[in-house]
Amino acid sequence: MQRTEPLLFTIYPNLKGRIPWIPLLTNIPTPIERLTDLERMFNLKGGQIYIKRDDKSHDVYGGNKLRKFEFIFGDVIKKKKKGVVSYGGIGTNHGLACAIVCKKLNLRCNLFLYNQPLTWMVQRSLLLFDYLGAKLHYGKTDVNTFIKTWFFQIFHPKYYFILPGGSPLFGRGTSLGTIGFIDALLELNEQIVKGIIPEPDAIFIAGGTTGTAAGLIAGCKLLGLKSIVYPVAVYKDFLANSFNTARNANKALKFLRKMDHNFIKIKVTENDFYFIKGYLGSGYAVNTVKSQNAVDTVYRLEGQKRGFHLETTYTGKAMAAMFDFLGKKENKSKIVLFWNTYNSNDLDHYVKSTEFNYQKLPNKFHKFFNNIIFQCWQITECPTEIREKCRAYLNQEYRFWKITKCSLDKTKSEKALEVLSKLIKLEDT
Ligand SMILES: Cc1ncc(COP(=O)(O)O)c(C=O)c1O
Description:
- The protein is of the alpha/beta class.
- The protein folds into three domains: about 5-60 and about 185-340, 3-Layer(aba) Sandwich (Rossmann fold); about 80-155, Rossmann fold (3-Layer(aba) Sandwich), CATH 3.40.50.1100; about 370-429, no CATH class.
- The chain is built from 16 helices and nine strands.
- A five-stranded mixed beta sheet has the order 1-2-9-7-8. A four-stranded parallel beta sheet has the order 5-4-3-6.
- The mean pLDDT is about 95.
- The structure holds pyridoxal-5'-phosphate.
- Pyridoxal-5'-phosphate binds next to helix 4, strand 7 and helix 8.
């Protein structure tokens, strides 16, 4: 069910009507669960581990995006735009969320995309962008793509320009997305007050454009919580750093004060949170040993039975940092919360509807599919009746042997194993 108003407006009624907002999220508040098997693995001494299930924030597409989009698309509607334009890597989750919301609101969606390491998830996203009606443009490198997007926006003023990740970039652009996560922290605080979770000592979150983390940090400061947010850099240093994070948090707080002069005057400093680096690998979306290990361990111990799955670009890296934190003696008694920013709803039926027909995409994107196969069933030509019942079919990644035992002829499964294991490149950080 969609909510009628964000907590931000309930708690600060003067903001209502002054800040654009539309209802999008369907499952608020998102649940908080205690990860006891993970606690046992770390042999905690009084410490507790929790997860904030934002992966279920929406019936179709959970994760961190729609919290931002309730405010950003509120502005799109208020400004009567005919669509949006945004950019990101060829597998961008932000772009996917844009396409889903645009379809729901009957808006046009233009996505400008640049290269990132190719995986099945990237192919899947490209197919879904097209299926959802987004118009795709290719820019190769991030800088080139940004310039192309910028030009598009100049010549198409009826399109609302959403910066990557829905966050300000180098201090420019709207703070509305960040405000979505100040609202999320108010939600967490209610759950603390209700006794669903003790006040966490540490909150771990992936930090890309850092709007998500900045909102949580600003929220903690606003409420005077003792919780320390640990954003974990999953993008290059020029973007994902503590200076930008503090700046994003302060920009959002300043905006709230502008909208309501009675809003408390506070300032976030870089000492209010703990920005973690060292888990990125050599670049954005590069898979690392630590990230893959965190994804696999959490799935085996908790995700499988609870219905969530981390991925290696964002949440795996944030979780890897949290693992190292929990491994330290001085942290064994800490209350730790992992904020899950990655969708866990099944998108497979949409993927199937695309019929894997990448030819429908603009020509420039065909090279990401031509003779590049990530799924075992594509290599083995697995019959429909077998693959439809197999857990490896359309699975999140391509290590089918991790997921189930192949029921096909041994030569076929061995061939698939050989081809796919060559594709796995893990970086040691
Ligand atoms: C799954 C996931 N987690 C975290 C992030 C990072 O959020 P932010 O860009 O606000 O730092 C993203 C951004 O795309 C994401 O897709």
